[in-house]
Every structure is written in C-alpha cells, then in structure tokens.
Fold this protein.
Amino acid sequence: MPPSTAFATRAARAGRGAPPLAVSRPLMPPIYQSTVYAFESLADVDASYEGDAPGAVYYRYGTPTHAAFETAVAALEGAEAAVAAASGMAAITAAVLSLAGAGDRIVADRYAYGGTYTLLMTELPRLGVEVTLVDVQDHAAVERALACGSDAARPTALLIEALTNPSLRVADVPALCALGAAYDVPVIVDATFTSPALLRPLEHGAALSWHSVAKYLGGHSAATGGVISGRKDLVDLIRNKIVHLGGCQGVQDAWLALLGLPTLPLRMAAHTRTAHTVAEYLAAHSAVERVYYPGLPTHPGYEVAQRLYPDGCGGMLSFDLAGGETAARLVLDNLGEIAFAPSLADVATTVSYPYATSHRGLPDDTLRAMDVGKGMIRLSAGIEDPADVIADLDRALSLCAEGAAQRAGRL
Ligand SMILES: *Cc1c(COP(=O)(O)O)cnc(C)c1O
C-alpha cells in the first residue's frame, strides 16, 4: 500500500512517541531528552498545570528524569520533597531568593564556600538583601545576628556549612538549628562535604539541606547539579524560582547523578576510611605542621564531630607543610597517581591548593582568618586502598625532607 502522506511529512513524524511496554519496564529510568510533552486533550493540559494528574509540560519545568533524581534524594534526606537545579550555586540562588527580598536580611557562615561567599557579598546586596556574616562556632554571635534589632532588617534565613572548606570547621548543626527555631528563622545547611550518608540536616531541625551534586552525590566527577531538600511548601517555592530564573538541571546530569546514589553509603565509608588513615599518617610526618581533619582528637571540632558523625567525618582533609610554599610546590608537582584537581569527592584521591585556586587573590588577613596559608594542601580522599595513597604521599613528602636538608646544608 502506498504511503498516504508525502515523504517530507513522513520524515517529520518519524520516530515520535515511545512505544508503550506492556509487560516490562526499564530497570533504570530512561533519560527524557525531550524539550516538550504532547497532550491528548485540553482537559489533560488543565489537569497537568493544576497538578491534578502527573504529566510533564516543558523541560525547564522539570521532566520525569528530574523527578526520579529528586524523589531519590528526598528519600535519602528524609525530606517531603527535593528540587534539582543546574548547579549547587543555581540551587542556593533560587533558595535565598525564595526566602529573602529587598529589605530582608540573611545571616550566614563567615567561612562559607567561596561561591556562596561571592553570591552573598556581591550579588545579594545589589538586590537590597542585607547579609550579616558570623562565625557560626560562636553561638552568642549567631544569636545576636538573629535577634532583630530595631535598626536591622528582619533575618529570613540562616545559612551554614556542615564542614567548611578548607579547614574543616565543624558546625554544631543541632544547636544552630535550635537557635534558628528560637528566632523563627529557617536554617539552610550546605551538607556537600558530608552527603546524606553522614549527615541528614533535616533530622537535626534544618529547614533545608543543600548539596552540590558534582561532589559526593554524583561522586564520579561526571554529573553537575544542585539539589535542595526540605518541607514541600518551601521546596515548591524554590522550584518556582528555578523555573523563573531558568536554572534547570540538564537531564543527562540528573541521570548521571541518579547513577551515583546507590553506592553513596559504600563510597562514603571508603572515603572516610582513606581520609582517616591518611590524616593519621600525615599527623605523624615531620614535614607536616598541622592536619585539619575533624576525626583527629587534635582538631578543635573533634568533640562536636564525635557527637554528630558516628559514622566518621568523610573524605575531606587539609594539611599545612612545615616548608611553606616551596614545600607545597614540590609536593604538588610530585604526587604520582594523585591528580591535582580543584574540586572534590571523586572516587580517586585528588588534591588542591586553596591559596592558588578556591581562595586565589583574597587579602592576606582574610586568608589568615580562614587558616589558608601558602603551605596548605587540601586532599579529597578517594576509595582506593589507603596504603597506595600513602605511598604516593610518602614519596612526595620525602622530597620536602631532602629539600630542607639541602637548604640547611647550604646555610
Ligand atoms: C562545590 C561546592 C558548592 C557549589 O556547587 P556547584 O555545583 O559548583 O555550583 C557549594 N558548596 C560547597 C561546599 C561546594 O564544595
């Protein structure tokens, strides 16, 4: 039978629509790489827009791939709902703009991640949102900032980081959430460094838990995104903001992130084991002046960490080399299989040098306040056998000892 339509028409309509599977389903949710969804009737359009029937409309509003990732993260966090965004920064931007507008005030951790710091200190003030930075270790200072004086704008959110970059300061999340509750200020916790495997902030009273998906949730340096979990009414507000601002996550990234979730507890246990072993090794090495790992009793946050992190403190640590910048350059250039990569949470161990990357160009007094020196190296412990990571570190650190001996000989 000859085709009833012209070739161009047949081409335009070719391959549209997924054939329904009657007796099986894909075990892994498919990637919905469609910008738009077709409806059978206007009644279905109404039902979809009103939320009366499940139906996707347009990529930027969210697809079934996003929904699969969001549902999975909400389950891990013990949250009513979660929403994904293009990046960690896209997610927190939508969250703070949902909670604060011109005339409002955000109280935030002075030691927050650099991207967060820039958003708070350069973008928000231009929109009329005031920002008060506090050292969240100092609970009296947090309380003063939350107490709304007559001359200060109303605080509408407290933004804290569970473990800070790069000196791993430990926020007492339950105590800070209790302070937020006392002043009726929702607390947002950046739990990127811990992942929900080690800390679920909502269980401690936080309103929202926030992650950069590129880190432990994805875990393989392949997926970019951000995700925020919490009460459904708050998450719905943030979802609207993401739609308005246009910061939706790519579906490939949502799918890759989904692929990382089942192994999260296994990976976090292995990251923690490597980090703890490496931290103990570094603490005993003569070329190392100081180690920042909250699982070591010498860390100022040790007591709080013992209470908050019964399963260990995760894979991030930093250390100061006694030989300063010279030693740092020597070590960084000779790390064998350990890659220099200014991100974190990969399955393989990586290092970064905050002075020249995340904290590049900051004034000296700011760097000092953040413990960032020219001899500081940050290490993201992978899931390898710790002995092999230590072997690479040991070869590099032995060069410091040789360098020091040579310098001493010349004097
Ligand atoms: C990477 C990171 C972010 C920002 O996330 P992006 O996905 O890069 O936008 C926020 N907080 C912490 C602690 C991070 O490490």
User: Anything to note?
Assistant: Residues 386-410 form the longest helix (25 residues). The mean pLDDT is 94.
